[in-house]
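Incident log, support desk, overnight shift.

02:14 A customer reports that sequence design results differ from what the structure should imply. Their input is reproduced verbatim below. On-call engineer (initials T.W.) acknowledged and began investigating.
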């Protein structure tokens, strides 16, 4: 049966989107594949359709619980009953039942941390899989080294012989592509590289003399222009402060960050998707797997820690193909903050020495956590690398990570300081060439924001007797 016939009968589409058919054909030949496809290009089709052709289970390794659950829910809406997410949402009994019945499912979603569990490994080793998918595969490089080291273990967990591996991402540099291929132990993978450029996202930037001035601009801009929109910032406290200021101006807004309870995050996310909320003020914890088509603005209140994060975050705008804007804001000391955030959870030489001291006296290094000597994230990373290298080598690895993160912030600063085309700078960073500049490309190419942004329908006039600075001061005083 032709692939187009299956596409029509199973999914109701008459034709493939760019890249889908090429990727699927290689998978059906038994080849490993790395596919770089922008958000909204239907990456999930690249593994769902082969699952129906090959008629064996597809294992999908996914980075976030919410993303995993959303994909499962979407498939169930299309009458796929044999789909499951094996993750920490399940209680002990549910988890045991799912593992025992794993071969009954056609699509199995799992986190890297769950994949390395011995009982899961034992079960998977006895199953014949059609395909192994690593979704958001850039996380291997972006998160694996210094955030979630179980990403680096994925390749070790895959039994031999194994089915084809499909690594999916929307953005990846050449270095990230090399990491994906290496750590997944792929065999000369076929690579489909779609352009990372999103022509309908128009790029702007603004510099301010201080943070108060920048905050004043944000409040005034959002009371005057239409959303929906996302404001990205580097700290959890800022998400709360800014969202409260917006609420005072009659804007339907909420904060979102990783420290919130999972159900609270889900509630905020659902309100935003349904249109009850116009604005989300978030850390980079928000966005991956969020299917909202009509985001018109993405504003970075402070510069992100690297270009990959920036590209992924602005990519949450304009998924409906309509015009959207991305505005990058900068004020003095933002660069220092971004560097601090980038290295904050990295273990230090001191942590390496303590870890080694515990081992020498026959004690468990986990006591570092019990005694508050290290954060949980830093310990995960430290524990992984201490099992891979000698202590001096581990110290050098962390020093190299620190240097790379500093350099990553400096790369983002080029967007702020350079007069070159912002779009071209971004595309070149990912090792690609910009073929054509769209109209209203970026601020350095003559972008006029007022031509793209619609006015907000209802503008609440603030108290004219109180200055922006006074109102900001009141909120910040109340918070402290």
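02:41 Re-run completed on a clean worker. Output:
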């Amino acid at each position: 049966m032709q692939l187009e016939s299956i596409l029509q009968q199973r999914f109701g589409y008459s034709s493939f989107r760019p890249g889908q058919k090429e990727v699927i054909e290689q998978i059906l030949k038994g080849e490993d594949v790395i596919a770089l496809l922008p958000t909204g290009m239907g990456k999930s089709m690249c593994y769902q359709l082969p699952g129906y052709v090959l008629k064996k289970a597809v294992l999908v390794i996914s980075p976030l619980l919410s993303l995993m659950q959303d994909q499962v829910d979407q498939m169930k809406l299309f009458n796929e009953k044999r789909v499951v997410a094996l993750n920490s949402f399940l209680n002990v009994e549910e988890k045991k039942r799912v593992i025992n019945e794993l071969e009954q499912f056609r699509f199995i979603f799992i986190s890297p941390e769950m994949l390395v569990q011995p009982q899961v490994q034992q079960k998977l080793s006895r199953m014949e899989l059609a395909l192994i998918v690593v979704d958001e595969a850039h996380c291997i490089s972006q998160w694996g080294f210094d955030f979630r080291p179980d990403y680096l273990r994925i390749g070790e967990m895959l039994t031999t012989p194994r089915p084809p591996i499909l690594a999916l991402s929307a953005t990846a540099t050449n270095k990230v592509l090399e990491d994906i291929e290496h750590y997944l132990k792929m065999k000369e993978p076929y690579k489909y590289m779609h352009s990372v450029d999103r022509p309908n996202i128009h790029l702007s930037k603004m510099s301010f003399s201080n943070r108060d001035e920048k905050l004043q601009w944000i409040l005034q801009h959002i009371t005057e222009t239409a959303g929906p929109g996302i404001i990205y910032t580097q700290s959890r406290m800022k998400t709360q402060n800014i969202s409260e200021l917006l609420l005072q101006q009659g804007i339907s807004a909420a904060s979102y960050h990783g420290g919130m309870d999972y159900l609270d995050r889900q509630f905020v996310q659902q309100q935003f998707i349904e249109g009850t909320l116009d604005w989300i003020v978030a850390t980079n914890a928000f966005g991956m797997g969020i299917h909202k088509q009509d985001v018109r603005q993405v504003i970075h209140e402070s510069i992100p820690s690297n270009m990959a994060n920036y590209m992924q975050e602005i990519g949450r705008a304009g998924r409906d193909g309509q015009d959207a804007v991305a505005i990058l804001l900068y004020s003095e000391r933002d660069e220092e903050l971004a560097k601090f955030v980038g290295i904050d959870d990295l273990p230090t030489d001191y942590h390496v020495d303590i870890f080694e001291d515990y081992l020498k006296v026959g004690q468990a290094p986990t006591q570092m956590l019990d005694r508050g000597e290290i954060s949980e994230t830093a310990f995960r990373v430290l524990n992984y690398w201490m099992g891979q290298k000698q202590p001096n080598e581990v110290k050098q690895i962390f020093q190299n990570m620190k240097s790379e993160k500093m350099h990553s912030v400096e790369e983002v600063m080029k967007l702020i300081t350079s007069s070159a085309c912002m779009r071209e700078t971004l595309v070149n960073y990912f090792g690609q060439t910009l073929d054509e500049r769209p109209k209203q490309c970026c601020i350095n190419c003559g972008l006029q924001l007022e031509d793209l942004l619609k006015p907000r329908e209802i503008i609440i006039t603030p108290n004219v007797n109180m200055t922006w600075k006074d109102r900001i001061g009141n909120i910040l005083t109340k918070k402290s």
